[in-house]
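User: Hey, quick favor. My workstation is busy. Could you predict this chain's structure for me?
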Amino acid sequence: MDKSEVEQVLITVKSGTEEALNIKIYKNGILARRGCGGLPGVKVSGMSFTGDSKYFDQLMNSVSQQVLDQDINHEEKIITGSLEYLVAFYGVSSNGDLGERAEWTKSTGLRFFMDEGTSFRHNMLGFVDGLAIEAMKLTDSWYFDIMMLGLDKMKSSSLPEQTLATAPKTEEALKQDFQSYFEQVSKKELAGFAKGKTYLNGMGEAYQLTFSGDEKSLTYKFEAAS
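Assistant: No problem, here it is.
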């Protein structure tokens, strides 16, 4: 598959049947993400139609034609528990759609399905892990706003108008997601994610987000924007 043909990148990380990360970045500007790469997996998910290829372009800067020529599907016998890392590239739509409804005619990928205690090593496994980390960093600020929308129903001024967020239905599951997210995200970066943004509630009232505490115990609250 030629690099110029790529229109979508899919990155997933799974432990057993639980998904720790699912990121889709499209050349046409669609972003979709669930999770932070750790366990328990964060269930809040979001999708935005940004109309901008900057996320895709930045991520693809780290992908060479040599990577796209690999097409690896490594599987091994599972003894204790499974780990799966996947990066897939899609392109050349047969139905004209370049987003979620696209019917891609070309694809390639790197998949590693391994036992938790594996001694397997491969330079492309390191690449997949690194690309997953890069994709998270690129979308961390955006995903923080998805979390605020999913958990608190507060929409950031930075989110595109066409944005969807889904969250668990029960209060218990929401609390678990809240805890999992804040355990897995870098506490040092949280204030930066909210800096300069306003958040609107369902009535259109504007708030700003403030943080207090330290890296071990961090709290946040919405205060009416002045």
